[in-house]
Amino acid sequence: MLKIENLQARIEEKEILKGINLDIKPGEIHAIMGPNGSGKSTLASVLAGRADYEVTGGSVEFLGKDLLELSPEDRSREGLFLAFQYPVEIPGVSTTNFIKTAVNEKRKYQGEEPLDAAQFLRIMKEKMNLVEINQSLLSRSLNEGFSGGEKKRNEIFQMAMLEPKLAILDETDSGLDIDALRIVANGVNQLRSKDNAFLVVTHYQRLLDYIVPDFVHVLYNGRIVKSGTKELALELEERGYDFIKSEADQAV
Amino acid sequence: MDAIQFFTDAYAQQSSSLHLHAFQQSNLDAFSTMGLPAIKHEEWKYTKIRNLFKDGLTYTPTLSNSEIKFQTLKGTEEANRIVFVNGLYNAALTHLIEAEGNIVVKPLDTAAGDEDAELVKKHLGHSKDYHLDGINALNGAFAAGGVFIKVKPNVVLTQPIVIYHVTDNANGMIFSQPRILGYLGKNAEATIIETYVSTGNSESLSNEVIEMCVERDANLLYIKLQNEGAHSSHTGTTHIRQLEKAMTQAITISLSGAIVRNNLNMIMEAEYGESHMYGLYLLNGNTQVDNHTIVDNQMPHCFSNELYKGIMDDSSSGIFNGKIFVRKDAQKTNAYQSNKNVLIGANASANTKPQLEIFADDVKCSHGCTIGKLDEEALFYLRARGISETNAKALLLHAFAGDILQQIKYEGLRTHIDELISERLSFQI
Amino acid sequence: MQEENEDILEQITTSEYKYGFVTDIEADEAPKGLSEETVRFISAKKNEPEWMLEYRLKAYRHWLTMEEPTWANLHYPSINYQDVIYYSAPKQKVSLSSLDEIDPELRSTFEKLGISLDEQKRLSGVAVDAVMDSVSVATTFKEELSKVGVIFCSMSEAVKEHPELIKKYLGSVVPATDNFFTALNSAVFSDGSFCFIPKGVRCPMELSTYFRINAANTGQFERTLIVAEESSYVSYLEGCTAPMRDENQLHAAVVEIVAMEKAEVKYSTVQNWYPGDKEGKGGIYNFVTKRGICAGDHSKISWTQVETGSSITWKYPSVILKGDYSIAEFYSVAVTNNFQQADTGTKMVHLGKNTRSRIVSKGISAGKSQNSYRGLVSVAKNADNARNFSQCDSMLLGDKCGAHTFPYIEVKNNTAQVEHEATTSKIGEDQIFYCNQRGLDTETAVALIINGFAKEVMNQLPMEFAVEAQKLLAISLEGSVG
């Protein structure tokens, strides 16, 4: 589904990704872990097409297409979803309206008829239960004045509505208490199927207790320095990132 | 008498300048063309400046008595002292404690003809384009009596420089025109405090211009304290040019006066400059204080923050006019401005005009202003705890002013000003 | 990406003006230029009574002594007032006995503008006075309105039919001598609308005037007067367009509102005069004086404006809060692009006790335009417990435009509470990216964000206008979910 080869990227003059290789197949959940500043969020941003980052080398293939050639909106319409670490606030734009626009833009892209209000509402109700989000939140302006937990839940709700093929969760656990974390994880698990895949970017092992990954990769200094199964995450939890750092630094 | 005639006569009486003659003459010409601003002049809408230039004011073209006695500013006893008498720099009364070689203080006219001539040429009169109203030019016509202050590069002054503007008005109404040019070399750090004292109770008017250049990485703390009494009027311009990564904090405190006009200009000429501007006007009687500030952002990445607070009792009047300019090239400017006023007196008034003029798009600018009374909830809360209404009000007003006071890092001076304020608020415990 | 965003911004902000066509209809015109003769000519054309002519001449003579104001943040070549045609009326039958007799060319002009003069075809609930150049060509639903005592007619008709009301109120809020443009308008105004809502009547439908400039070289000088008697209510809408022409055309209007005790007047404008082309050529010079007085206690006046047109806008809809407990509101969205310049805002003058006012202004600048908010909040000595809250936000699209804020606040009463807040920022790139990530293209994203930015004001517009206004803001969101 997603094939990243030797991906390199920088912001302004600073090299951040120095050659990432990663292969994600349908049905899989991959976790990317790593210390602060290792390039985790950069990877998520580059995949979504944020303009601040310049790709300087490598390739990314998504569902048979050259992802790097696509505009951010087309990446989204192709089925790539980024749950933002810091969801932006847009005053005056109702959340419901926003999601409806997004859903119908995607349908148009896929050559489908737009949903009418009734159809949309029905689907919305259904998905709302999934992430335990309530109507009052959705009639407010997009993310404006939402608590940290509400913003993250809104991200997962939008993910449910847009039914992506690949969802990237960028530090979705940061700033969440245990109840909110459980709700978010629960939403993800229910959306999980043999046809879609998840890339979970996180600093802590905590989230992975709830969203159990098939593979765990450790990102350090712009490279994946170690890959393994969920046991690797537990080892990291126990031993911290230092042993990885020293291993990697020695290798260089 | 006609103002232009009056000042042309005064101009002729002053001692002749060695090196600033052309500068003075061109300013006199500019003044003669512009005259004094009428209230139709947008920048003088609320301040009837013409009323200040009344008959009977005298200009004293030569130094008066050097034995003059004046009270020093509490809390700054150890500081360097520069003294002006009736608008003329007085070397005899000036006293520097700073090690020789760290700072240079000399008559402006001298500086214009020696190794600092280049600096004088570059910075003297830079403020004039911001004040096309005759007042600034008028001061320029008398600039030779001013002082030049230079803090050398990398020097961190241990004590502030306190500039005393002494008006010897025991025997008549005095009009004065002090002029200061200050220069902080690269990476230097200094505090400059201006304060105003008079020896008598006759009316007076000082029309001042202080221009400063804060070089790259230099750091300036500037404090202007006005508490000269109800007979004194003042029009003054503080004009600060900031180069790369320079930082300036300016605090203007006005506690008394007849008509007071303070212009404060921050010219952000290079990237990453930073300005903090604080003002407090605590007024009573018929005092009128008019604060005009300009932040001119010309280059990217500059930051400015401004907070002015006013408390107006009796028939006093507080005016605030703040302009933020963001020029075309000044992307990534962050500029904030806030003006808060409390009206206490039944005949008090507040006029405020915060302005934004923005020509670059990637900026974050905001301003806010409020005019209101004390928070009734808070007042009630205090009274419910057994505090008298008078004291409750005083407490709240004191707290309101506190935001500005706490910006003064010299404890002795801060305590002194705090006492002046407490006294004014008739805080009784 | 950055570049692409800018391209799209450019596309959005340079879309074509849709109302720029010219109607080919013969017109009855005054000769170019302004003199006492012109004033007499206009008055005679309209068969006005002597007192009206006197009013005009007095205004004209005063105008001669005045100078054009220069304090606004506007730059334009000086106007040659002798190069303007002050009266131009489309030729049609002398008097119409019914709406069916309107010239088909005129009828189709208004159809094209989305204004049907056919009562049957009109959406119910809106009565229209249609003004082309200097005269009112039709007023709909007059009969129905007269049943409840509401007078809604052209100003020319009002001068003849209701002289006592016109004598009493014309110039009572905006005196002819108020400023240069009011003096000019008072001398040469040719038509406009008059609304009178009698005591206790809630006007059963929205009243609306649609202004159209058609003829070349003419100025439009209309006059609107709304009088709401005790405990009455009316919502009034105003729209305007003009053909695309290379020369600048002058529009100097005066609107006056009087609200008596407990009366409420809501006045909404969608101003879409021709803004000039991409190079800044042509466009309307729009100098308008709008002022209302809350004359009675508990009265309310609310101005809502969406300003997208004109090459020059000089306009400050104001309210004098004279009655105790009176309320005034000003909601404004001003969009400028290309070479447009707008200097607009409001004045809230608090005279009565316990008066309240609210100002919400949203400025959006694009292209090479300059957009200024200028406002005054004043609290007089005796206006105990006056309250004002003002919020002025500016958004910049592109780095060649300017946004300016000039609020004046003058308080002379120590029980007043006045708050003003203003912000300026550019459209958020992170917001655009977030929308992109959810599959919205940048054009849609920008429209959505601008719509959100202006929402508080758009919400104030009557439904029918809101739709037109949204389109005007280049918003093409299809459908909405309740």
Account of the protein in words:
- The complex is a heterotrimer of chains A (252), B (429) and C (482).
- Chain A is built from 9 helices and 12 strands.
- The model of chain A has no long low-confidence stretch (mean pLDDT 89).
- Chain A has a single domain, classed as 3-Layer(aba) Sandwich (Rossmann fold).
- In chain A, α2 crosses α3, α4 crosses α6 and α6 runs parallel beside α7.
- Helix content of chain A is 39%, strand content 29%.
- The termini of chain B are far apart.
- In chain B, α6 crosses α7.
- Chain B is globular.
- Helices cover 19% and strands 39% of the residues of chain B.
- Chain B is α/β, with parallel strands linked by helices and 429 residues long.
- Chain B folds into 2 domains: 268 residues, no CATH class; 49 residues, no CATH class.
- With 482 residues, chain C is an alpha/beta fold.
- Chain C has a domain of 296 residues.
- In chain C, the strands form 3 sheets. A 10-stranded mixed β-sheet of chain C has the order 4-3-7-9-11-13-16-18-20-22, with helices on one face. In chain C, strands 5, 6, 8, 10, 12, 14, 15, 17, 19 and 21 form a 10-stranded mixed β-sheet that branches. In chain C, strands 1-2 form a two-stranded antiparallel ribbon.
- Chain C is globular.
- The N terminus and C terminus of chain C are likely disordered.
What brief labels describe this structure?
heterotrimer; A: 252 residues; alpha/beta; Rossmann fold; 6-stranded mixed beta sheet; 4-stranded antiparallel beta sheet; 9 helices; 12 strands; 39% helix; B: 429 residues; 2 domains; 11-stranded mixed beta sheet; 10-stranded mixed beta sheet; 19% helix; globular
